[in-house]
Amino acid sequence: MAILKNPKQSSKVTAAILSLAMLCLPVNTLASQANSQLATATLSSQEIQTAERADGITQDTQSSTPANQLILDTPVIDEVGLLSTQQNQALSERLRQIHQQGKAQIAIVIVPSTDGEPIFDYAMQVADRWGLGNKDADNGLLIVVAVNDRKMQILTGYGLEGIIPDAIAKRIIREQMTPAFKDGRYADGLMQAVDAIDSRLQADPETLARMNAVGADAPEDVAFDLITLFIIALIIGKIVTGILGRVLGASLVAIGFVIVGMFAGLNVLLAILAASVLFLLLLVSGLSAANSLGTGGQYRGGGRSGRSSGGFGGSSGGFGGGGYRGGGGSFGGGGAGGSW
């Protein structure tokens, strides 16, 4: 208190206190700025990680796993870490349920890239090696997603080509997978695709025909399917009319064309119109396939022995120990591909 009685000393103390206060202000300001910058940096790091996850690109998964090194030990093989643990488990559980019901064996493979190899070829190698599906039913289905390439492929086994024809596989990619993938909702897109596939696996033929008529394909898809089917039917028609006669043979082929066209997803009226043209062409055609066939007993349906064994050892089902091994199913290249 003696200090306060001396005016000179009192003023010196006051000046010292003020100086100390002035020094503290910048320190507090700097500390506040540092905390703010740290928070911003943390937020930016989180945003970058979120963006990388949504874009499917991570620093440690740039190189892809070769198709012959992938091991089928679970329904969902995620080489990218694109799905969360919960999403992976949900998809795996759904695919196991479908498999246990005996309807199909579906597997999903997510890789960073196919390293320049066409995704169809990559998927076929995986499908043949694993032998998805039962050997007798050929009811395997494979979905491959190459994230950095932004490409996807659905492959159907021989036994599923009538239930999920190429046009329907393309529709599933276009309507279920692509929109979700563009928004970074990969798990949603895959689950929606599985839902669409499962709904067709459970449907009867009449229901399938109605489902095919809903959500007609894009014009270019319809044109391609129609032309391909028409050419095949014309070739078969010439063979049948050469054996059964023009009228009966042309009639049976035209009816078969309509039925197959409906299962392939063609519009019913368009299929009937094309069948009418096919009937007339076969009726007026003077060509006979009987001579080219020789005896009828020598003609055999297109074999698939070349793939039935699953050329990479898939029939043994000896890959992995997760209880989801393939049963020797065969694939002929049915399905569709797409990108986003």
UniProtKB/TrEMBL annotation:
First and last residue of the signal peptide: 1-31
Top-level taxon of the source organism: Bacteria
Sequence intervals crossing the membrane: 247-264, 270-290
Protein keywords: Membrane, Signal, Transmembrane, Transmembrane helix
Cross-referenced PANTHER family: UPF0603 PROTEIN YGCG
Residue intervals of the TPM domain: 76-198
Name under which the protein is recorded: TPM domain-containing protein
Pfam families per UniProt: TPM_phosphatase
